[in-house]
Amino acid sequence: MDGVINTTPQNYKIDFAPHMQPDEKDRDMISSWPVIQEHVARRDHAGFKTSRLQVNGAWFVGAGEKRKLLGAQARVFYKTPDGADSSYHVNFMPDAAALLLVFRVGAAAFAKRDQKVPLRNHHAMLVRQPRWGVGDPDTLEIPAGIIEQDGITPRFSIMDRAVLAALREFMEETGARGKELFSINSGTIQSLGGPVSCAVNLTEAQHQFSATIDVTARQFRKIQEAMQDATAGLASEQESTTVTIMPLKRAFEETLSGKSPFSQIAIARYMKREGLLGFDRSRVRRNEPGSGPSPG
Fold it and tell me: Among 101-110, 120-129, 221-230, 272-281, which stretch is predicted with the lowest mean pLDDT?
């Protein structure tokens, strides 16, 4: 078959849909892409032996030496552990990383009284940007982006690369002033738990992190003046983001729209870890719409 590449030692073949007609360089890039190889290896290890991938689409960015593969869509043919033939469609995307930045206003004063910083004093920095896939020109989300597959020395683990990617995206999507924020007692960047997946036919998982900055009310006002509604994003990646700082509770509620599930999960994870998820008993009424668990 024209376009078949024998990708030993994986022992499966890759062919391309007739409409694609990729050149030799693009074929090699797709067939050797770690995202595809790792996906197949995991399935083979579980006893589902892949025999063939039919690539139906691929997305590249850049040109010349800077050209790189961003995503691919394929039908995977395999044998089940009992020998039956089957197949499924999958969208291959590299893992991503995200950083949730939270300001705790007046934290020092609460610490002196040996009190927990209340939810109302937690504020999150997020971005708004168009997400036409869900029909929203103004999606609220935490800064996030893909973890680069190349250009990183092998000594870095996936966690190291995820942290670097999270920081990179935060700086890109919030603008130059974002760098200054980490000089204000930012402490350690913490993981929010294991990678999160939000679609059964998508290989991408998001590695989520948080950074908490304790500030005085005066410092927070200065940050708001400098950052609120600031525009950022990389023109080369056709990004257009607007920075927004809002109460953490409001951010939690706005992301419940379902249009940015990764951000919703990250905020919920942070609130759970910090003991900020409670039960709003004032909303609990028999048969009242919207009653139930809520933050605060």
Answer: 272-281
Neighbours of 196 (CB within 10 A): 18
Residue 285's pLDDT band (cuts 50, 70, 90): very low
Neighbours of 155 (CB within 10 A): 6
Supply 244's token pair.
């927004």
CA distance 210 to 196: 14
**146-154 mean pLDDT:** 57
Average pLDDT of the residues of the chain:
78
Of 151, 137, 150, 133, which is closest to residue 91 (Cα–Cα)?
133
Q: Of the candidates 174, 143, 146, 151, which has an alpha carbon nearest to the alpha carbon of residue 162?
A: 146
pLDDT tens, position by position, 180-234: 555 444 456 788 988 898 777 899 889 898 988 888 999 888 888 888 777 765 5
CB 118 within 8 A of CB 105: no
d(CA 181, CA 245): 13
Question: Closest Cα partner for 242 from 255, 251, 233?
Answer: 233
pLDDT in tens, 238-257: 567 788 899 999 999 998 87
